[in-house]
Amino acid sequence: MRSGHRCVPYCSARRCVRVRSSDNRLDIPLGLEHTGTDKRHKRGSDHDRASNPAFCVITVTKRRSPISVSQPYSSAAPSSGPALTAASLLEANDLCVFRGDRLVLDGVSLRLNAGDAMLLTGPNGAGKSTLLRVLAGLRKPDSGALAWQGQSIFDDRAAHAERVAYIGHQDALKPGLTVTENLHLFARPGASMAEALEAMDLLPLADLPARLLSAGQKRRTALARVLLAQAPLWLLDEPSLGLDSAAITLLGNAMAAHRARGGVLIATTHVPLPLDNSCALDLPGATDPRSFAAYEGDEA
What we know:
This protein is α/β, with parallel strands linked by helices. It has helices at 128-135, 157-162, 179-184, 193-199, 215-228, 245-260, and strands spanning 7-8, 10-11, 55-56, 88-99, 102-113, 117-121, 143-148, 151-152, 164-167, 233-237, 264-268, 279-282. The chain has a single domain (7-19, 40-282), classed as Rossmann fold (3-Layer(aba) Sandwich). The relative contact order is 0.20. InterPro entries: AAA+_ATPase (IPR003593), ABC_transporter-like_ATP-bd (IPR003439), ABC_transptr_haem_export_CcmA (IPR005895), P-loop_NTPase (IPR027417). It comes from Acetobacter syzygii.
């Protein structure tokens, strides 16, 4: 964290209470990419939660408003909801997620403020991608609470979708469309296409169909889509996949600029990322190697 502040992510070892339910539906908010398939969704009952000091503390008063790529974000407080620590944007308390009969996430808590960044680490199957999908609002945790500026994100999933830019393992590009045409599908009003293309060194490829791009070029296009989303919360699942050293430098510049505007980002990674003054949350993974044998499609 910045000088004078500390970051203490926390992952508890307490298990949560699980309750079976006949409600197996999963509502996906518009505007977010869903890269996994939840075969079963079971709601769990909230259990008594102690106050866990899991946080990065920074006081920054602005986050970007949806006007242009270069402007800071707005920090207006919610009209209702429980109070959080000053400047807290994203807070999770005792998140538990089951997959089948296995506990994937066990009591995960975190708190991030404007300008903060967190790296999620851990072995394959530890729940990194699952945690990102929960934070994105793509699925509900089986127990625990998740809030943005003190208000549960599940009170209004559409509103949360507007503040999230999520990138999964898949680049999710339409092969018959050009780079620019793909990006236009996700650009919000006021976003600068030229700035996003330049930031990811895509100007020479702007009119090239996505099917002709290399793996690294596709990844840079997906990252440019994040820039155009005008979202204060970036959730990046292995953002450096397929990138060479020059492209990783571009990614680092984009992440630094996002944080300088008061944005928040959480990224999973197996390799070092150019991300200074960041928190780290290590997810230990399953102790039983058979825990995720039935879910080979979800590596993280």
